[in-house]
Design brief:
Largest sheet: 3 strands, antiparallel
Radius of gyration: 26 Å
Distance between the termini: 77 Å
Order of helices and strands: EEEHHHHHHHHHHEEEHHHHHH
Number of strands: 6
Length: 448
Amino acid sequence: MFEVKSIKLEQKISNENEIILLFNTDSTFPCLFPLMFSLRVIRFQSLSTQYSDLMALKDWYIFWYKKYSISFCESFYSSNYNFELIQDEIDNFITFLENNNDLSNVVWLRVNSTVNYKNISNKIRTLFKFYTYLMDDYLTVKKQPHIDRKEIEKIKSNIKKYMEIKKKNIRKFTKTIHGEKKYLFKSMTNEMVKVLYETIAPSSSNNTNPFNPFKNRPTQFRNFLIIHLMLNYGLRVGELMLLTVNSMKKSVLNDTYSLIITNTDDENDDRRRKPKIKNEFSYRVITLQERDYRFINIYIKEIRSDINSDILFTSLKPPHSSLSYSSINKIFKIIDKNIKYKIPHHFDNKAFDSIDSITPHVCRHTWAYLMLNYSFKKYENMDKLGNSINNIGQNSLDKAQDDLRVLGGWSPTSLMPTYYGKRFIVERANISNLERIIEMSFGFEKTI
């Protein structure tokens, strides 16, 4: 009926030579309005985001076809772009999702703890993004000449209000069913990092690590290297999956080694969801510590020497498939469960500095926190020695965030370093506030 496919392009129309499209399998053509949505709205987003958005639209198209035996594209076009068609069916679509995409025995739920309302919420947000695109392109004087401009603006305003109400309702259901767990940070504390390394340290030939949840040394070493690279160099999980045995390069000037972050364009990569570089700033060269260069070489020469694949991280069992997103997430889930057993208080949402779980994304947040902390102190000390800068703290923070943008693969104007380094910024702000309180005490404590 409907299928989401990745299409290779001869020329780049975004930052990739690939685009994700929703196809009608009966006609074998892309669905018209999702095609325009892909080309005009989401083509500059990562392939994983495009895939997620179009999978949500696929559910919408399946729902529409099951109910009306006609494609949504045909309905919307033949109705002369009647937006009430969409609005009238949103509640029914939510119910359809709650019933596992089934219209044969529909029950209005809203209170079923087995339903993943977070997933439904994401799909409804995508539908509203699609709805907004349709509204911007087809709810216009040119496309709707029988409606005057003021009336069009009024209709748009009402639709936007309607979408906001629906978004709030979905968030309410999510909080009610799944419980509201608020975690301020996504980065690990120093103690958590220490426990993490104690857990993932590979066994030596003479001494086993009783804390490591993985049984054999080759698997332990591979998983250690995966987490170590993400935690120390800020790699995104997709970038880690792109690494090959040739990703390490030696400098022509000295004995330093670098990790090259780029697309592999490996034709033999059979992963369904292929990793891709996120944006043009994500292509980068990261200097490797000599010890880490040796670690990677040990892995290549001693553990995966017989594997006939250029992809660095693969299964260690035949047929040695390249590790997928789900494979890496499974590794992290096993480690997360193990560490939660050891230090459960670090995952208690009643503590302000706890985290929800240990994931690949948490490794990147932790790297950003540690990097920002180190760079800030380095630049602060340099500025103090120079003794020529009035606003030392802000200047040092700006320089540290610039370092983070370069190494993390963000654009020069990206605000993501502030988001990823939230733990450091909050700690720094609180230190400054306490220093201010101490300096402005005016001796009143003597009177108490």
